[in-house]
Specification:
Blueprint lengths: L5 H5 L3 H14 L4 H18 L12 H12 L3 E2 L9 E2 L4 H20 L26 H10 L5 H16 L3 H5 L6 E2 L4 E5 L5 E5 L2 H14 L22 H14 L7 H14 L4 H8 L4 H22 L7 H6 L1
Antiparallel strand pairs: 1-2, 3-4, 4-5
Helix pairs in contact: 2-3, 3-5, 4-5, 7-9, 7-11, 11-13, 12-13
Length: 330
């Protein structure tokens, strides 16, 4: 079969190319969550580019992509057609739009590498500038309210208590918690074998209190569905593996019950990282625990820990509390 001409390639349906891209990334080992994210972002672009006829490769242009980004910036609602969250008023954040741009550029680079285009059409597409925001962490009072809200007696309470302590004590991602297996949970040794991004495995230690909570949940309350042997540590009420969406719902209920509206699963990861450093942990070990590929990502937590220490000192400075200036004026 002769190779396709440039004109033939330009007429290829964009939706077909998106499906081929997703399959390619799946073969490369991208996580299911990443694949879903890619597909949702590219589907949104294809829907935007659709006029009277389905979009083709020739519609995937720099001008079209810039128009799509402007369209996203002008949106007035969030979470449209989301599987779990309700639609909310308010535009998309710069970080969300940044994610769309990254997806488009990744797709454009793939088109070039696969020979569908002579060069990436989106080399000059610039993502919106991200604001420099301080990563938030849970306070001692908030952690206390969370733990006091949970009654660890019974399946739901024991499961939630074990989940919260595990997230706080290890910093593992929500997706990593949902895919954690009994085979990779070493209670006697005090560590987990976690499968992270890119299917990379790493060992993550946990402490005595977390071990106690896990033992209680696993041996006293964890129950599989009849006739359905399951290796997942955390199960749903039906005895099937707890899903990412299921965990999100559990954390949202916890946020309401403990009166911490900003609570989400990743906040536990941030809190673990900052407290680990503040308690004397070193950044190289933290990088390995969190599963970061580069030290640059982990260093964000170092800056946050230093900033937090500065804030705490300004509150509790021994010299400032002496009111030296006031005493001298007298």
């Amino acid at each position: 079969m002769p190779p396709r001409s440039p004109r033939d390639k330009a007429a290829l349906p964009l939706t077909t190319l998106i499906e081929l891209f997703i399959v390619s990334k799946q073969i490369e080992g991208r996580s299911q969550k990443t694949l879903i994210w890619y597909k949702a972002n590219l589907k949104a672009f294809a829907e935007y580019a659709t006029d009277s006829t389905p979009p083709t490769l020739q519609d995937f242009t720099l001008d079209q992509a810039r128009g799509f980004v402007a369209h996203l910036q002008n949106r007035t609602t969030r979470y449209d057609n989301h599987s779990v969250r309700l639609t909310k008023e308010g535009g998309l954040s710069p970080r969300s739009i940044h994610g769309y741009v990254r997806t488009l550029k990744t797709f454009a680079n793939w088109l070039h590498l696969e020979g569908y285009v002579a060069s990436s059409p989106l080399d000059r597409l610039k993502p919106p500038k991200l604001p420099e925001t301080m990563i938030d962490v849970l306070t001692d009072d908030e952690i206390g309210r969370i733990l006091r809200y949970i009654n660890p007696d019974g399946f739901l309470g024991a499961r939630l208590y074990a989940i919260v302590l595990l997230l706080l004590d290890t910093g593992i991602r929500a997706s990593e918690l949902c895919t954690l297996t009994l085979t990779n949970t070493f209670l006697n040794e005090g560590h987990l074998k976690v499968v992270g991004k890119g299917s990379k495995e790493r060992l993550v230690p946990f402490g005595a209190a977390t071990r106690k909570a896990l033992v209680k949940y696993i041996h006293s309350y964890r129950s599989e569905a009849p006739g359905n042997e399951c290796n997942a540590v955390f199960l749903s009420v039906e005895g099937t593996p707890l899903t990412y969406n299921g965990l999100s719902l559990i954390i949202r209920r916890l946020a309401l019950g403990a009166d911490i509206p900003r609570l989400h699963a990743h906040l536990f990861r941030h809190t673990f990282a900052v407290r680990y450093l503040m308690n004397g942990g070193d950044i190289m070990t933290l990088r390995l625990i969190l599963g970061h590929t580069t030290l640059e990502v982990t260093q964000v937590y170092m800056h946050l820990a230093e900033s937090h220490i500065q804030v705490q000192h300004s509150k509790f400075s021994p010299v400032d509390r002496l009111d030296i200036g006031r005493r001298r004026r007298r």
